[in-house]
Recover the amino acids of this structure.
């Protein structure tokens, strides 16, 4: 039995959790690619030319979105828990997502 | 009674947690009827062995909470009209609590946590001392007053996914009670509350999902109360380390 969860704060929680997990999975991969600069510069070059593909740009958009959503979601949580706000937090949550979309969108437009 | 065609298909949980299952009953639809009316109709006219709880029928006692179409609700104040989908309603026992039989859950874990969270009032003065005045405008009193309308219905407890994932978690109702007492000028055991709510099952388990606040039938805000406890326990933690 599952209660209805389609309310903004629950969705904000899921978004925060999923983006956090995805970023945690991304980081080791990221460091591994960076380490190629020392161990296999050839391979790194090939990888870097692959990142010019539109598909890689799209993935970068996703990455920036995750980062932004996690950062603003985190700020929202800190504000919620550390500032004595009884204010409409749903609006804040929605705001966090929209700012994330804005930043990642701006980045996306800049790279294409 | 409505016309013959005006029949609700009501599936109701029968049995205990493990061997139970949903059984469907046909209940005459009325112009105005609450979910509790439907459950009562089934017990009166279809199956007298149906077990459920209610008392006041006006949203004061908090005993009639059930899962209605998988959402926790106070059934005496929930109109069938609002929840019915294509003539069907599904009624189950409250989530996150052991089922005794049918729609009656064992509320012991819920109330035990109430006590564990420091929810029992501790007097700060004896009867021989003058009664300290309570200023209703004071910030702390406003916080306390916000929480005292809780009717212990356990809807927040049933709605909370953190409770579902961690059986030791005290849950929104007990923590909100703790926050209320913490802000009550006449409560004499502030430190005990802070210790009780900062332990393993305490307020820091909360992920601020806000289902408690979203589902509370009395429009209370346990999520913010728990956030208050998080602030207060953290503040005390740093103060104690310094002191
Ligand atoms: S019967 Fe008392 S709250 Fe519903």
């Amino acid at each position: 039995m599952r209660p209805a969860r389609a309310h903004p704060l629950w969705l904000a929680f899921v978004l925060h959790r999923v983006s956090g997990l995805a970023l945690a999975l991304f980081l080791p991969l990221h460091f591994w690619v960076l380490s190629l600069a020392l161990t296999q510069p050839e391979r790194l070059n090939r990888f870097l030319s692959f990142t010019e593909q539109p598909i890689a740009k799209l993935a970068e958009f996703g990455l920036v979105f995750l980062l932004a959503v996690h950062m603003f979601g985190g700020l929202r949580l800190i504000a919620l828990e550390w500032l004595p706000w009884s204010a409409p937090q749903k609006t804040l949550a929605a705001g966090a997502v929209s700012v994330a979309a804005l930043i990642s969108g701006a980045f996306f437009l800049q790279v294409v | 009674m409505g016309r013959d065609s005006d029949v609700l298909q009501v599936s109701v949980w029968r049995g205990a947690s493990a061997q139970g299952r949903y059984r469907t009953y046909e209940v005459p639809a009325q112009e105005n009827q609450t979910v509790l009316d439907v459950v009562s109709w089934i017990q009166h006219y279809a199956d007298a062995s149906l077990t459920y709880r209610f008392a006041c029928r006006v949203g004061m006692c908090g005993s009639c909470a059930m899962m209605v179409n998988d959402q926790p609700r106070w059934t005496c104040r929930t109109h069938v009209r609002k929840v019915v989908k294509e003539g069907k309603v599904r009624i189950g026992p409250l989530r996150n609590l052991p089922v005794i039989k049918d729609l009656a859950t064992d509320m012991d874990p819920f109330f035990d946590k109430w006590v564990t969270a420091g929810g029992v009032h501790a007097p700060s003065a004896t009867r021989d001392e003058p009664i300290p005045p309570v200023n209703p405008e004071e910030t702390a009193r406003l916080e306390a007053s916000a929480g005292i309308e809780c009717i212990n219905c356990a809807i927040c407890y049933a709605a909370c996914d953190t409770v579902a994932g961690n059986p030791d978690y005290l849950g929104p109702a007990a923590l909100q009670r703790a926050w209320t007492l913490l802000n009550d000028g006449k409560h004499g055991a502030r430190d005990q509350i802070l210790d009780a709510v900062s332990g393993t099952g305490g307020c820091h388990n909360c992920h601020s999902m806000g289902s408690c606040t979203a589902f509370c039938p009395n429009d209370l805000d346990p999520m913010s109360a728990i956030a208050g406890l998080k602030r207060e326990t953290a503040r005390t933690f740093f103060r104690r380390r310094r002191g």
